[in-house]
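Design a sequence for this backbone.
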């Protein structure tokens, strides 16, 4: 598969494509911004429970870099919270 400039939804392998979901409860989430996020679980703070998400740079299955720091910073700059 050929990667296009700015295409953060590029899947490097079938395993990643199968694992990524738009479901906020999934382990690997594709955000509307195009970022692929790792769901670390639930956290309670100040009486409210929320989902803890983190960005990943490398595919957990094949090790390919799927998002650069620049990709992540650009996408996070356009998004304040995950809905």
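Sequence:
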């Amino acid at each position: 598969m050929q990667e296009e400039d700015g295409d953060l939804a590029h899947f490097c392998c079938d395993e990643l494509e199968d694992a990524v979901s738009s479901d906020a409860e999934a382990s690997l989430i594709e955000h509307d911004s195009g970022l692929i996020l790792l769901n670390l679980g639930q956290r309670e703070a100040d009486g409210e429970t929320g989902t803890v998400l983190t960005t990943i740079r490398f595919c957990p299955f094949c090790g390919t870099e799927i998002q650069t720091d620049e990709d992540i910073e650009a996408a996070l700059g356009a998004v304040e919270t995950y809905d």
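The chain has one domain: 17-75.
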